[in-house]
Amino acid sequence: MGREVLNDPEDSQLFSDILNALKEYGVDETKLLAERKYKIQEIVFASDHRITSFGRYLLEHFDEIISDFMKESLPSQFVDLFVREKFEKIEPLISQITKIKEYDSSDGKKHVPHRTIEILCKAKPALMESIILDRIEAIDCVSCKAELNRILYESFRDKYKQKVVDSAKVTLDYISERKNKNLDRGYDFDWPLSKEFYRDDTSDYIEWLLKNFGSDLKTEIFNYVEKTKVLDLNVVGVAVKYLGQDAVDIAGEALDMTIKNDDIAGHFRQAFNILSNLDYSKYYDKTWEIAKSEFKKVS
Prior knowledge:
Layout (H helix, E strand, L loop, with lengths): L1 H6 L6 H10 L5 H7 L1 H4 L12 H8 L1 H8 L6 H10 L1 H4 L3 H4 L3 E5 L2 E4 L2 H10 L1 H14 L3 H15 L4 H21 L20 H12 L4 H10 L5 H11 L4 H5 L12 H11 L8 H8 L8
Antiparallel strand pairs: 1-2
Helix pairs in contact: 3-6, 7-10, 10-11, 10-12, 11-12, 12-13, 13-15, 14-16, 16-18
């Protein structure tokens, strides 16, 4: 059904026709949709962001379906649709659809639907400002806080710059501490802006920080690299990308490795590639030590 709806967005009645056919078999369409709302949210818009027949059905039947859809939370695609087409209907529900959810995760127990909050903030930033500030203080999920701070900065810029920078310092300390305490299992920081799934997004988070705040966080980025026991060359790479020569001491940390065998050769190749556009003559002794290693792949 989803493929048909997406492939034919011009047919505004297609989804309604499908539901009418199901009703003949005694199917409760509202219950059916509410139970599957997270599976079907992807068919609200076509790839070019035109509203599909499913999206039009939601708009036409808003009053009938919204109470069932709101029992737990509202999928962000639905929020996007209603903000675009029926904001006056969704506005009274903002407090409810942005409410804190409580469940256990690696980063805390109190979370927020940050994608929904971002959609609403882009539409009505003044309306959402106090809600974002309230949610930041009320939740304990570190990745959710980081995401809300991103939304806050991108929506209000200099008004909250220092607040966001101060929060980032706390977040960097948290990530480093979590990584150091989980050396055997590892720790992956979740950053929704990342385009990759099921991987550590720390370098993407740090790239966003450096892109927006640059040298304001140079010391904290260096401290992060120095304190974190497992060196992440992706973090070193983004530091050099945005700080240039000022990141030479951050990049220099990549050379301070114990050489036990040839397995570390790939690490050094990547490290020297990162350093290639910098003056790293201050690390001559360490470079020479690597060059004369007894392990041929390293030297």
